[in-house]
Specification:
81 residues, mainly alpha, 59% helix
Length: 81
């Protein structure tokens, strides 16, 4: 499969689901995270990635939340050894 076709299929898949609402950084962080996590899980279902590998789910999470917030929340990003 060529890159252009893969990209078009990826964009079509992404347009099936609505991105979760942004993760609020004010207020009750635990409640905010739990609500965001639920919204994110629903997003994965709508784009058909709920049974994807953890690596794919993390890639989606980074795209939705952004790398800076991931580092701020202490998750860090490191390559597998």
């Amino acid at each position: 499969m060529n890159l252009v076709k893969e990209h078009k299929e990826f964009i079509a898949k992404m347009n099936q689901g609505k991105y979760p609402d942004p993760l609020p950084l004010q207020g009750d962080h635990t409640e905010n995270w739990n609500l965001f996590d639920l919204d994110f899980e629903n997003y994965l279902v709508t784009i058909g990635e709920d049974n994807a590998s953890e690596k794919v789910k993390i890639a989606h999470m980074i795209n939705v939340v952004g790398i800076p917030i991931f580092v701020l929340r202490g998750y860090g990003i490191r390559k597998s050894q």
